[in-house]
Write a structure and sequence with these properties.
The chain is built from 11 helices and 10 strands. The longest helix is centred in the N-terminal third of the chain and has 15 residues, at 3-17. The mean pLDDT is 95. The protein has 2 domains: 3-68, Chemotaxis receptor methyltransferase CheR, N-terminal domain (Chemotaxis Receptor Methyltransferase Cher, domain 1, Orthogonal Bundle), CATH 1.10.155.10; 80-149 and 183-266, Rossmann fold (3-Layer(aba) Sandwich). A 7-stranded mixed β-sheet has the order 6-2-1-7-8-10-9. It has a 3-stranded antiparallel β-sheet with strand order 3-5-4. By secondary structure, it is α/β, with parallel strands linked by helices. The structure holds S-adenosylmethionine. S-adenosylmethionine (SAM) binds at residues 17-19, 69-73, 77, 106, 108, 112, 137-139, 142, 194-197, 213-215, 218, 244.
Amino acid sequence: MDQRTFEKFRTLIYQRSGIALNEGKETLVAARLGKRMRLLGLSDYRVYYQYVLDHEDQGEVSLLLDAISTNFTSFFREPDHFDLLREQAQQWVAAGQQRLRVWSAACATGEEPYTMAIVLQEVCQGYECDLKILATDISVRALERAYAGVYDLERIEPIAPELRRRYLEEVRGEDGVLYRVRDELRSLVVFKRLNLSKPPLPLRGPLDIIFCRNVMIYFDNTVRQQLINEAYRLLKPGGYLVVGHSESLKGIAGSFRMVGPSVYVKES
Ligand SMILES: C[S@@+](CC[C@H](N)C(=O)[O-])C[C@H]1O[C@@H](n2cnc3c(N)ncnc32)[C@H](O)[C@@H]1O
C-alpha cells in the first residue's frame, strides 16, 4: 500500500471510530485489509478505499473496522473484574438497592455482558432486583453474534458447569451441539450499536458499574479522555469504572480514584 492511500485509510478510520493507527503500520494494515479485499475480488488498495466510501451506507466501514481491530473476548475474561462486580453488587443489594444498571461498553460478541448477567443474576437470588445490562459496540457483525448468543463448547469452557446448566441451553445444528444463552438471561441484556469516540454519548445514567475493557488501547489520549469524561458523567457517585488489565488511565483519570489495578471509582 502506498503512503498516500495509507494516510487516507488512517484518516477515515480515525474519523469514523477514533481508532488511531500509528505511522509505520502500513504493512499490518495492508495485511488486515487484504483479507476483506480478497473476499470482494479487489486487489488495489485505492480501489478498495473508494469502495468503502461508496458502500458506507451498506456497512462497509463497519467491516473495514472489523478488519482493523479485533473482537477477541471470552466469558469471565480477566476474572478478578467479575469478582469485583459480584462483591459490589452483593453490598448494594444487601443494603436494599434494587435497581442495578451496568454497561459493557465494547461488548464484542457478547461474552462480557452475558458474564455480567450471570454474575448479577446469581447475586440477585432471593432479592427483588431490577437488573439491566447495556451492551454496546461499533461492530455490526459482532453485535449480531452477541444478540444471537450462541457459542460452541470451547467458548463456554470458562463457565462453571452448574452455571452452564442454569443459563445455557443446548441447540443442535449442522455444526453439532452449540450452546444458546437462555431467554431468561438474554432478556436482561440490551444491545445497541454505539461509537465510543463520538461524545456526548446518547446514554443516560446513573450507572453502577461500567466495563470499558480492551478498547481504549485503540484510541489516542484525546479520544480516551473524552470517553473517561463520559464514563464519569454516566456513573453514580460511588460507581465503578473497570478497564482492561493492559490499559492505564495514567494522566487522564481526572476525578476518578484508582482503587485497584484497572479499577476506578467515582468519588461520592
Ligand atoms: C478486543 S474487543 C474487547 C471486548 C471486551 N470488552 C473484552 O474485554 O473482552 C474490542 C471491541 O471494541 C470495539 N470497538 C472498537 N472501536 C470502537 C468504538 N469506537 N466504539 C465502540 N466499540 C469499538 C470492537 O468492535 C471490538 O468488538
